[in-house]
Amino acid sequence: NISDVDVISSFASHLPTSLLLQLYDSSEAEDSSSEASSSSEEKSRILQTSSETPLFFIDISGFTKMSTILSVNDLSLVMNEYFTSIINVVTSFGGSVQKFAGDAVFVTFPPHPSSPPGHRLILASLCAEELVQTLSDYLPSLFERRPKLERSSLNIHCGLAFDECIFCVLSAEG
Fold first, then answer.
1. What is the pLDDT of residue 82?
2. DSSP 3-state assignment of 1?
3. Which end of the chain is more exposed for a tag (fewer CB within 10 A), N or C?
4. In the predicted model, what is the mean pLDDT of the chain?
């Protein structure tokens, strides 16, 4: 029997802290309330929080040229390697990858009770600088392993905004 807290804990690295706290609090409240409602009754809830938040768009250039050089499998390996590098840098600065769209990545620096919005904006700026420094003119390791392949590198471009965002988690139980 898995508890709500166990389920919430399994998603901890994928959700903003403020939402995790709301999920945990609502789970505790449900556990302590009487179980008068029918088990077949479907419950839905939307947990949300709003905050001024850095929004970060990462675009990769060089992908189209590379797609003409490499097989689909090799291109997949290269992009997985590159995206892994991006994710590692983003998470090291407290960012959260929200979406991949082709060769682009959308990142937020979600609200955290101990981190004011201005501090997250500074972290997002430092993250962008680190990404550009470490992942520009990126030569995938595949080209080192296969020296006969025509060489092609990837580059990274970052756009940063700061605005009010609503973070929400939708859940339905039944």
1. 93
2. coil
3. N
4. 78
How do strand 104-108 and strand 96-101 relate by DSSP bridges?
antiparallel
Helix intervals (H) in the chain:
4-10, 17-32, 63-69, 72-92, 117-135, 141-145
- Helix (H/G/I), strand (E/B), else coil: 35: coil
CB of 131 within 8 A of CB of 89?
A: yes
Phi, psi for 143 (deg, rounded to 5): -70, -25
Can you say how many angstroms the Cα of residue 100 is from the centroid of all Cα atoms in its chain?
9
Q: Identify which has the larger pLDDT, 142 or 172.
A: 142
Instruction: Please determine, for residue 3, whether its predicted confidence score (pLDDT) is greater than 80.
Output: no
Give the CA-trace dihedral at 132, 137, 142, 143, to 10 degrees: -170
- pLDDT over 50 at 38, yes or no: no
Q: What distance in Å separates the CA atoms of residue 16 and residue 49, rounded to the nearest whole number?
A: 9
- Strand segments, DSSP code E, in 33-154 are 43-61, 96-101, 104-108
d(CA 162, CA 120): 10
Tens-digit pLDDT profile for residues 52-77: 888 889 999 999 999 998 999 999 99
